[in-house]
Design brief:
The chain has about 140 residues and is of the alpha+beta class. About 45% of the residues lie in helices and about 15% in strands. The chain has six helices and five strands; from the N terminus they run βααββαββααα. The structure holds zinc ion. The site of zinc ion (ZN) has 8 residues, from helix 3.
């Protein structure tokens, strides 16, 4: 089973009235502070806890957290790391600028595409079990 997720660009989401409105609603509910380090700041970023590129919901309040720019940078770095692992093993593939193909574990194991580097798919899956389990749980439960 292949899942395709079409999405609009991050910039257009952030600029849209709907997203701005949702962010304001969350700030009024949760307060004007970083939800990770608790620092008070006026510059808060509405971060997708599960990134859209990994199957997270764009406009779901429970998938959004308010972060200061420092915490957001750290979170983004972790998200990029996860994304690269999933791409390397073949679970995820960008098919256009704004949409992704997601593959389940059987398709990854069946496909003839070899991961880059000298490790086998099974070795990579074993090595990054936590990231892959999380991805499969979100998208193929
Ligand atoms: Zn913070």
């Amino acid at each position: 089973m292949i899942k395709e997720y079409a999405r609009i660009s991050c910039n257009s989401i952030k600029d849209s009235f709907t997203f701005h409105d949702l962010k304001r609603k969350i700030i009024s509910k949760r307060g004007c502070h970083c939800e990770k380090c608790k620092s008070k700041t006026n510059i808060l970023i509405a971060d997708h806890i599960i990134p859209i590129s990994l199957g997270g919901k764009e406009f779901e309040e429970s998938n959004l957290q308010l972060l200061c720019s420092k915490c957001n940078k750290e979170k983004t770095a972790r998200d990029i790391y996860k994304l690269n692992i999933l791409k390397k093993v073949g679970f995820i593939e960008m098919c256009s600028n704004y949409s992704w193909w997601f593959y389940d574990i059987e398709e990854v194991l069946d496909s003839k595409i070899r991961p880059r580097g000298n490790k086998t798919k099974l070795q990579l899956i074993e090595e990054h079990k936590e990231i892959i389990d999380e991805f499969l749980k979100i998208n193929f439960r």
